[in-house]
Amino acid sequence: QVQLVESGGGLVQPGGSLRLSCAASGITASINTMGWDRQAPGKQREFVASIRSAGDTYYAGSVKGRFTISRDNAKNTVYLQMNSLKPEDTAVYYCRSYSTMSWGQGTQVTVSS
Question: What share of the chain is helix, strand, coil (3-state, %, to 5)?
């Protein structure tokens, strides 16, 4: 059974940083494409970033240059480092496993002064 558990969300001021973590079980993150999606209030869920087994990374245009997705194979954990946060980054962030079509429960990120 695949389980993805996100953590690291919270309230941060504009321009600040947060690092989200996604601990995976029942799946080996290093050999699967993993990613992050987000859903803002009243909006559809959207792609944020992904990382393939070979290490290739992809980003939505709105976060490119500010967010970095990475992976710790020993911990079977995927991270999303978010810098220069903006109010429009406010959303629930979901970890995703593409091969198993699984998502975590989400973690709230609020960017506000």
Answer: 5, 50, 45
SS3 49: strand
- Cα(4)–Cα(103) distance, integer angstroms: 6
pLDDT digits (tens, 9 = 90+) for 29-80: 877 899 999 999 999 999 999 999 999 999 999 999 999 999 999 999 999 9
Rg (CA), the chain: 13
Q: Give 84's strand partners.
A: none
H/E element, 25: strand 18-25
How deeply is 13 buried, as exposed, middle or buried, from its count of CB atoms within 10 A (0-12, 13-18, 19+)? exposed
* Terminal CA-CA length for the chain: 40
User: In three state form, how does the secondary structure of 58-92 look?
Assistant: EECCCCCCCEEEEEECCCCEEEEEECCCCHHHCEE
